[in-house]
Every structure is written in C-alpha cells, then in structure tokens.
Amino acid sequence: MAELLLLRHRERPELGELDGYQAQGGFDGLRKAVTTMTPAEVIDLVKASGLRGRGGAGFPTGVKWSFLSPGVFPRYVVANADESEPGTFKDRELMERNPYQFLEGVAICAYAAQANLAYVYCRGEFWDLAYRLEENLQAMRRAGLLGERMFGSAYNLDIRLHLGAGAYICGEETALLESLEGKLGQPRLRPPFPAAVGLYGKPTVVNNVETLANLPLILTRGADWYRGFGTEKSPGTKIFSLSGHVARPGNYELPLGTTFRELIFTHGGGTPSGMAVKAIMPAGASSSILPGTDAVLDTPMDYESLAAVGSALGSASVIVMDASVNLTWVLRKTNEFFKHESCGKCTPCREGTYWMLHVSERIQSGGADGEVKLLRSVAAGMQGKCLCALGEFATMPVVTGIDRFPDDFQSNGRGGR
Amino acid sequence: MTAAQVRLTIDGMPVAVPAGTLLVDAAKQAGSNVPVFCYHPKLDPVGMCRMCLVEIGRPQRDRATGEWVRDPNGQPVLSFSGKLETACTTPVEDGWVVRSASELAIEGRRQIVEYLLTSHPLDCPVCDKGGECPLQNLTMAHGPGKSRFLFDDKIRLDKHLPLGELIFLDRERCIQCGRCVRFQEEVVDDAVIGFFERGRKLEIVTFSEPGFDSIFSGNTTDICPVGALTTADFRFGARPWEMNAAASICPHCAVGCNLMVNSRREAKSGGNLVVKRVMPRQNERVNEIWICDKGRFGYAFGSSPERLTRPMVRRDGTLVKTTWDEALAAVAAGMRGAGKDLLGIAGGRASNEDLFNFRALLDRLDGLLVLDEPMPGGEWTGLGPGSDLGRLGPADAVVVAACDLHAEAPIWWLRLKQAAERGTTVITLNLRPTRLDKHAAYCLQHGLGESGDTVLALQHPGRAPAGSRLQAAADALAAAENVIVFYGREGLSAVECQALAAGWGRWLVKTSRSGKTNNGLVAVWPRSNTQGAWDLGLRPAADGLLQALDGKRFAYLMACDPVGDDPKLAEAFRQLEFVVVQELFLTPTAGLADVVLPAQAFLERDGTLTSGERRVQRFYPGVPALGDARPDWQAVASVGEALGVPLESRSAAAIMLAIQAAIPDYAEVSYQALAQSTEQWPPVGGADMYFGGTAYKNHQGLGAQLPRQLLAEHLPAEPPTSLLRQPRPAGLTLVPVARLYDQGITLRPSTLLKDRLATAGIELNPQDAEQLGLAHGAVLGLVWAGGTQEIPVQLSADVPPGLALVPRSSGLKLDEPMAAPLARAEVR
Amino acid sequence: MLIEKYPQEIERILANYPPDQRRSAVMPLLYLAQREEGYVTRAAMEEVAALVGLEATQVGSLVGFYTLYRDEPSGTYHIQVCTDLPCALQGAEAFAEDLCRNLGIRLGETTPDGAVTVEAVMCLAGCDRAPLFQLQAPDGIHYHENQTVESALELIKHLRREGGRG
Fold first, then answer.
1. Does B195 touch chain C (CB under 8 A)?
2. C-alpha–C-alpha distance, residues B361 and B413, integer Å
3. C-beta atoms surrounding B714 within 10 Å
C-alpha cells in the first residue's frame, strides 16, 4: 500500500493523542505558516500543491481561498464535517482517530483566510465524536495551539464546534451556513458565494474535513512532495470509502488515479458472493451508476477519468453491487433517500423526488407499463432546474440506472431484491 | 443619484433599466410577462419555485481585451449556455439577449407547472382564490394540460386549518413558495408563521399565541399565489367575479390607506349590496399594497344591527324613532334663537365636506365650534411638496416622538422601518420602548416631564453631555439632509405637546428645512381626518370641553362621543337646554341628546379625508345607506335649513367646490384632481396578479398632497426653558397609551377582531406592582368619576418604573398623564 | 425554566458564538431542551426563542426541519437503524425487521412498555460496519456498529435494567 498521508493513525495510533501527534511533527505546519509565512504565501503554496476539495466538487482549494473578498473582516472558516452521503464514512474516521491533523488543517486554513474564528460543523449524529473533538480542542487551547498570539505571533484563533441535527442538505455549503446561523438548512442563492458573503454575511471559507487534513503535510513537506502522489490534475491521495458487496469494506487511502479494480479486488477483496460486480456508485447515492465492465473497472479514479466514463468521483464513496442486485431496487433506495432529504425549497426537487419515489416503488413491485419511461422523464425534467445540487444528484442514479441497465427495467424489475 | 442604465433585449424588445434590476422586472418593463410564484417585487428574491426560467444569451468577450467579440456585421456574438436560468434572481447586464418564450423555456416551465401540481388538489371550483388565482391562470397559460401524476398519489392534508381566528390555511393548496413566511419576516418583522418539516412535507405553521399573531396578517392572503391562505371573513363568502368594487379610504387612523370595498348583492339583505371584504388599493406614496388588519377586518361596524337607522327625538324623557321631518322640526323648535350660546363639537372621523358644512353652520349662527380631539399643532403640520416616506434615504432622518406608531398608525411604522432599512436615521423619543425602537438608530427614552429638555438637546448639538447617545443623535440629526418629525401625545401634557410641536416647527424653519421635499412635521392624530379638521379651521377647546360648555345652552355634536370618552362630562350635557347628536350609534352622548340624527358610514357615501401627511383622498360609496341615515354633510345642511341657514346640500363634490374657494390650501383640490392616477411600480392586480398579488390597481385616484411651508411668524415664540420642564407627579402616574385594537365605536362591533380587542387594564412594572402588593392579575382600585373603579393589572418589564399605562378607550378617559388616584390595591 | 436550571450551560452555549449572533445558539439550546423533557415542548420553544431573540415559531420551525429534534413525547430510547443503500446491501433491512419481530413491534413503533422505539434512518456514515444503529438516549446519541439481533437485544435488556447509555 502506498504511503498514508491522512490515515496515518492506522500505523501510528498515538496520533490520536496530542502528545503523540506533536511527537510526529504535529503542528509544525501551523507553526511554520503562522511564524514564517504570510497568509498569501500559504494560499500560494496550497495552490501550487494542486489540492482539490475532497467534499465532492473537486474545486482547487487554494483558488477557492483566493476568492475571499479583499479587505473585508471579520472572516470565518467552517469545516464541513456534516458527512452524510450514503457510502461515505471517511471524515468520521479522520476526526475520530486523527483529529489533530484535521484540526491543524482547520487552523492553517483559518490563518490563510485571516480568520480568527473557525467552526467545525459536525453532523448531530456524531454526538460522541463531537464530545471527543471538544476535548481535543480543549487540549489544543491548553497547549497554546489555539488562542491569543499563537506561537508568539500577532495571530489569534479559536476553533469551535457546532452540531447539526439531522439534515443531509446541510452538507451543501450554503445550507450549512444557514444552519450554523440558526436557520433552516436550506441552500442560498449563489452568487454570492461564501467567499464573498458567507457566515454572518462575511467572507467565509468552507472546506471538507479531508481537504483540511491534507494541509499540515503540504505545509511541512511542500507542494512538490504532495504532487508526487496522484495524477497531474488530481494530485495527492484520496480516501476511498468502500462499501456494499465487498469482502473488506472500509476506508482506503490511495493515490488519486487508482483503478476501481485495484480498490475493489486488491484492497476490498472482491465480492463476498464471488459474483461479478454488476454496478458501481463511485460517489455514494449521488452517483451516475457505472456498470461493472472491464472498461470501468480499469478506469483510474480521478476527477477527469471518471467524468470521461460518464460519472464523477464526488466524495469517492464507492458502493459496489454484485449481480444479485436489481437496479429497480437501487433506484427505490436512492429515491427514498433523496425524497427524505430534499429540503423542500425548490419545486423540482421537492416534488420530483416525491414523484420519483412513488413511480420507482411501483416499478420495483412490477407496476404498469410506461412507468419506467415516466420515471426517466420525471428525472430528466428536474435536471438543470434545481436550486442546488441535491435535486440534480437525485436524478443521476435514476437516469443512468435506466439507461445503463436496461435489462433490469424490461419487466419492470419484478423479483428484484 | 441615478444608477447607470443597462441595455438589453428581452424577447426582441430593447429595454434600458437601472443597473441591478432583476431580469424578471426588466422583462415586465419590456412587456414580457415572465411567470412567477415565489418572486414578489416587494420581497427579496429566493429562486424557490423555478417558474421564471428563461434562456440568456451573453455577449462573448475577448479574453485579452475584455471587449465584446463582434461578428462581421458588428453585432456582438452571443453565447447561450443551453441551460435555463431563473429571471427572478438574476440582475441584468449590458448586451444580454433574453428569450422567455424559446422552446427550451416553454418546456422548462411546462415541467415546473406539472411538478407544482403533483400535490395540489385542483379544487378550483370551490376555492376562494378561483377567478383571481395566479396558479390557476399560470397553469392555463404554461401548464401541460394533463398531468402524468396519479391522482391517488396526491398527499391529503388539512384543508380548513385556522392559523388564528383571522387567517385560514388549506395545506393541500400550498405550493411552498414562502411568500407569506417571507412577508412576515422581511417586510413586517413578525416571524409568527414559518415552515415546518421539509421536502414534500413542508408546511406552514404558527406557534404564536394567539395564532398568527401579527397586525399585518391579512396581507399574506393577497400575495399568496394560490388559495392556501384565506381570510376568515371572505372564506366561502363569495366568488371574485361576483363582486362590485368601490374605492375607499381607511377610516381607522391618520395614515389614509387606500382601500377597495368588495360587495355583492344578497337575497338575505333584500337584494342589497353587502360588503364581502376590504382589500388594499395600491398607493405607493401611502400604503404601497399593504393594509393592517384593523383596516382590513374593521368594517363590520357599517352593518352592525346597533347602527342608528332613523332619527330619534326625546318624548317624555325617552328617545323614540321618528322621521327626518319631525326630528328637524324638533331641532328647529328646540334650538330656536341659538347663537353665541351654541356649542358645536365635531370629531376627526368626519369628512372634509361634513366638517366644512358644520363649520359654516356654526359660523353663521355665531356659535362656538370645537374639535373633539385635544391634540395640538395641526396648523404647523405638513410636509414639503412631493414628500414620500418611501423615498427617504441614507442621508435623511426621521424623529418619532411621543407615540407608538405600530399601534397608532401601523403603516407609518412599516414605512419608517423600511426607511431605516434603506439607511435613514430613525430617532425615537418616548417614555417607554416601542416596536419602532428595534429599527431606530437612536432610542432616546426620557422621563416623565423631560421631553422638552430632551428635544432641546436633540435640536442643539453641544447641549447634551459629550459622548452621550443624545449627543450622537443630535449630531446625526444636524447632519441629515432631510428631516421629518412625527409627534404624538403619549406621556405629554397639553402644554408639553404644544411646546413639542411648535418647537419642532421652529427648528424646521430655523434649519431651512420647512417647505422642502421630505421635510416637515406630521402629527400622529387619533382619527382619520383630524388633519382635515384643522385645515378647515376647527380647533380643540382651548381649556377643555367642560370649560367650553360653560354658559352654553345648546350643543350640536357630529361624529364624536365626549361622554363615552369621559363620563364626567355627562352632567354638563344634561344641564344644556337642547342637544343634537349626529352619529352612527346610540353612544352615551347620543343617549343624553334631545334629537339624534343617523349618519351614514364611510362605506355608504363619498367624501374626502386629509391624512396626517396632508394627502387629500377621495372615498366612494360601496353599499347603500342603512335605513334613513344621511351623510353628515347632508344632515348638517338639513339642520341648517331647519334653523334658517341655507348650506350646500346637493353633493359632497359641490361642497368641495366651496372648500376650494374658501380654504386657500385646498384651492387646487377638485374631485377631478383627486381622481387622477398614474402607473405605479410594481404593477399589481389585473391580469398579472401573479406578479404583485391581488391588491387592487389604483384607477380611482392617488389623492393630492398639500405642501406646508412654515415661516417663523406662524409659530409662537420659544417658551422659556423652565416652562418645558414639567413637574413630575409624585408616586405612580397614569399614562394614556394607544392600542391598535381599541374599544372605539368603529371597532367594537367587529366579531372577527373581538378576541384581539384591548381589554380594560393597567400595565405596571413588576417592581411597582410588588411595592403596591399587587401580583399579576390583581385589581387596582382608583378613585374615579365620583366612585371607585377597579382596573385589572398586567405586569410588563417594558413599563418604566413609576408609570401605569392606561390603554385608550378602555374605560378610563385620560388625555394626559396624571397622578394615580389610588383608592386601594388588593390582590384577588 | 431551563435558564433557572442550567444557567452556566446556557451561558457557555451562547458564548460559543459572536455576541451579536445569538441566533446561532438555537440548535444547541434545542438539544438542551430536548435532553430535559425527551422532546421540545412548546414552553421550551418559547424560552429558547426568548434566549436568542427569535419568535417561538422560528424555533418550532427548526424542530420540524431537523430530524434529531422531536416535538412530541415518544419512547425513552430510540434505536435508529441505518437502512440506506450501502447498509441494505449488507443486510440492514433484514436486521431491522428481525429486531422488530423479536420486540413484537413494527418498524417505527414503540415497545408496549414505552422504553424502546425502533426506527429506520438514513445514512449514519458507518457503512463499513453494517448493520449499525444509533441509540438516541436521554444523554445523547451513541453508535452501535457491527450489530446482530442478539447483540441489539442484549443492549435493550441492559437499557431496560440499568438505564443510562448502554
């Protein structure tokens, strides 16, 4: 296995303790940034590293930071720890077992953004985890790794924890900010983007946990070292959350560009049933579903290659399904999920997810002719019309499932699991 | 300060609009109706319903130069993304070519309508909104005609849910556009309804007590684009196409909101027209498209069974119904020889025409005429020409003294809240906190008797301690480009109030503001036409009504009830030889009269009212008069005839001609001029009601604002400072305050509002209550009107210590603060 | 009143946000209110609203939007099984059904003694350790992963006997 940058705790469990983390060079990156670099230099370094957002969109992190409205203060940094995409469980492991690397990343980001206050927006279900994170933050405060005049500089920072309360949509960054402001977690119009008008109307950076956890090593070892992992356009490693029909589900940190085959068979041990891989959802429920063909299995998992085969890397939550699975059932499951999680703000998503669930339930139980066509049409009709990405995500498994697995929909899927 | 213009083409029509204009509004101006549900021109855009999808072509730019790329003909090369965009959230840019009727856009909207209707019950035939429903209209225009959604998959939800006793919700019809929720939060700052749940389960709820506890709640039914929100009075009451519409002006306060009275002929009323609802009529200078719930629901008094329908005369000590001829004969006999010994008392509820005739009668008989409302200053009130609260900006300031606008003139509160949001400096001065404080830059709460000092310090930077809030407010006021001062009488004695009004008048003159646009003085009068009464020469009795009655033998009262307000006056009226009362109801004063003449309600007649901003506005008859009631001006002319004084008796319009000739400020105020109206933004009503709601477009006249330019000689000399500082009464002081839903005679008959009427009671600070040994709900005994009156006590930390707030029209008549005549305090 | 019982905790919650942004404290305050009564009462909505300067309706609205808040009383312990796609592929749906059958209830119902409610929920971010559920207990939310019906029944037995977090 390649060198671990993020899941280092698996080799060094002591990273979970502040002493252990510091003994491994922890907080050197933050110290270096705060004491020897200007915020602009940190942004340039992150730009040079080619780090792309790990939350799903894959937007270059340093570029995102550079969009902060100049001269407007205070600014905020918010770590998006609302990990809720079905099939995604990487941020949770990071925060549970390598929390300081993540929190150091938050601090580095805050310094680069010239923010003096950062929030970790943690999904409410992570109650126990949040309790431990609170202890981690206390430990950092006691050790002078947060607070006034850090490392003898003029820079002050506090990181605070905020718990969500059960809403997938809060993973969308503007809905997250609304929620953090004590409002319904419904997405805002964009533009303006959070970099201009974010938390409390101020310039704000919102980054995913995994993205932030990359920063300490980029700071200490440099952009060139980081670019030594992954591909030209997708540098670094990525944690792939592997789930579904695999013998060894779990998180696997691999260079971007690793193939599905390597992930599923070499690391995941293949399907427990021994049956062929029928379908892969590479980005959790929000995936364009890929068939388990050789061409797909040999596709490198990076942002560009997956787009080329008609899907997206997203949060790299790889759900594997063997030949026992009928796609009519899969679509009913994803539709259930999106119908439950639609915030209701915009018409096509609110009504479309509800409608799609009704139709897919009938299809799964062998409904009348024409329902498949209708389902696809309802999904296609939502596309390009929703206020945020959730509604679009909901349509992707539906459209690709029907288009790429026509056999499952021949008989309206009777007998599916 | 005009914004730069942006030029673009929408559906082939070139249009130029100010930078920052939203595409949906620009399209409207270009004559393209982009359909909307969630968008409303008075609310922030949210892009929720996705109905306004259009295609936008943007000029391509050369990467190096940033210039537009042009084709060989010099035309900009456009790029269309192939994706639809929401016109309601997109500010326009130069050079755009917008297609709202392309195949893509039409198909996109067709789909949105189909989605919207998946859970809508399509119960148009029984829906109150049917006939004026944006969803119905836009479905016809843009929908697919047939839905692929299965009928029995539709969600079944509550259809008759009272959010409160005023507004009902039909959850099946709601399309979750959030206009109502956003109106309550953004526009009127009363977030008492909200969304509950999420996704398809999203529903409107209220957790307030009472439900939907907002004095602006009715407006949500106007902007609701479906039949989800309906008013309790109109619900199942009539269909929109059955109704007549008559333009009117709200009679309940001095704002002068423009109304439309909808009525329908009904068999149970003998085929007569019956009022079915009252709606706002657009006047962007006055009420925009909003009205408060008092104006919307407070019309029931017109059809109250308690209304006087026939004249009455006193026979053998009892008032009995009779004819006009007999009643007028009784007046002629009873008032024979009336002259200097006649007192005329009129209320500010009466129209200009009524008051003018009344004054003419009293003048001719050489009687004394007084205005029933004792608040001073009406000869100085008025604004510079073209003033508009809606155009106050960041450089301007507004002073609001001694009043609670939210309770006394809700739409002014709203207009000033909005001004504050645009950056206008709002300064409040009062004894206690009020709802406007939240939006004010400076809240200058002062003690009893200290208003004069506070105002002086505010007007003269440098008097207040350096660094104080008062000083900062004084500096802000001095720096303001334009200043409008609102004043009321809360917590002030007559002397103080007079000094306050005159003091601000002098200041406006001294600072060269008076007579300029968006400058001037506005009195927060207690009645709709008190300003008109002042303009026509009526004045309050200099030393009170009791003094005015001294030595009089006859009295003629119109549209006022002094005995009802203050039972102590009853004896003085009983001493008179002959009393005539012209009224809507048999009030306590009318009960003492020798002749009672029935007057028509505003709904039944025409006339003009002059608002607190001195805007003269016409109202028109909406329903036939009850019984033999006559408009006040006509009744006065009849009395005049009986007393040998001929008065104009042909029409209200004819009296206005006489007013024009007699009152210089009204010289231009013809009925024709008042009926002029111009196009207003946003367009409302009509075929495009989906854009602005069902408020009525104003075809019947925007009225005429009478400017006022004060000169130094109009005003009394500055009183010595010592006079301004009023001695504070010792101990607990009763302070009269206004409540929106008071117990006034035009509100009491409302069955709809009865649960919200202010109850008799005194509000005390908990500390004072404790000192008096009173707990919440206890009763305070006061020595009052020769006996002991027991008043329930309510506690509120907002009441400053030492004060006891007494709501008006709640039993204790009080014009100004007075030491509480405590009898005893006891806990029940 | 929460403020009388937990003045310091409320102070700490409010201090977590900028002084002019009290509204942000509404969600943690709702957790506090729910911990107290097992659900968010009308009185609590009003108190929380007053603490952060909102209307009770705005607070109630949040209770409706976020699934971890409840606006009516229910079982003391909520066993919430993730049955989302990845977990379902690993047998979570069958697990939930079996568990319910053993408890003599249907999914979404509460046991007759009012102690345990079993519900299906959306993804809990533990897809590699299915079947799993979160236990919503009076003191907070705790994950129980790699479960069998036997282990879940054992936990329930413990909860009924001992209370606490299990």
1. yes
2. 38
3. 15
The two structure tokens encoding residue C18: 């900028």
**CA dist., res. A207 & res. A109, Å (int):** 9
C 54-93: CB under 8 A from B: 54-61, 63-65
d(Cα B87, Cα B28) in Å, to the nearest integer? 11
Give the residue among B318, B336, B105 at the shortest CA–CA distance from A385: B105
Which residues make Cβ contacts (< 8 Å) with residue B793, sequence separation at least 6?
B761, B762, B763, B764, B769, B774, B776, B777, B778, B779, B780
Kindly state whether B63 is in contact with chain A, defined as any CB-CB distance less than 8 angstroms. Answer: no
What confidence score (pLDDT) does residue A72 get? 97
Which residues, other chains included, contact A259 with Cβ-Cβ below 8 Å and sequence gap of 6+? A297, A298, A299, A300, A301
Q: What separation in angstroms does the CA of B674 have from each of A45, B554, B617, B671, B701?
A: 70, 37, 6, 5, 6
pTM score: 0.96
Q: Do B196 and C42 touch (CB under 8 A)?
A: no
Residue written as token pair 């905790």: C9
Give SS3 for B123.
Answer: coil
Q: Please measure the distance between the N-terminal and C-terminal CA atoms of chain B and give it in whole angstroms.
A: 64
Q: Do B207 and C64 touch (CB under 8 A)?
A: no
Lowest mean pLDDT among B143-157, B262-276, B621-635, B768-782: B768-782
DSSP for residue B820:
-
Q: Which residues of C touch A162 (CB under 8 A)?
A: 16, 24, 27-28
* Residue B759 near residue B794 (C-beta atoms within 8 A): no
Q: What is the pLDDT of residues B545-603, one digit of tens each?
A: 999 999 999 999 999 999 988 888 999 999 999 999 999 999 999 999 999 999 999 99
- Secondary structure of residue B335 in the 3-state scheme: coil
Q: What residues contact residue A306 under an 8 Å CB cut-off, 6+ apart?
A: A282, A299, A312, A313
User: Is the preceding omega at residue B807 within 30 degrees of 0, hence cis?
Assistant: no
Nearest C-alpha neighbor of B752 from the set B299, B306, B411, B303: B299
Reported ipTM: the value is 0.95
User: Residue B362 in contact with residue B639, Cβ under 8 Å?
Assistant: no
CB pairs below 8 Å between A and B: how many? 89
Instruction: Check if the beta carbon of residue B70 is closer than 8 Å to that of residue B76.
Output: yes
The 10 Å Cβ neighbour count of residue B717 is: 8
Residue B702 CB neighbours (<10 A)? 21
Helix (H/G/I), strand (E/B), else coil: C89: helix
Q: Do B48 and A341 touch (CB under 8 A)?
A: no
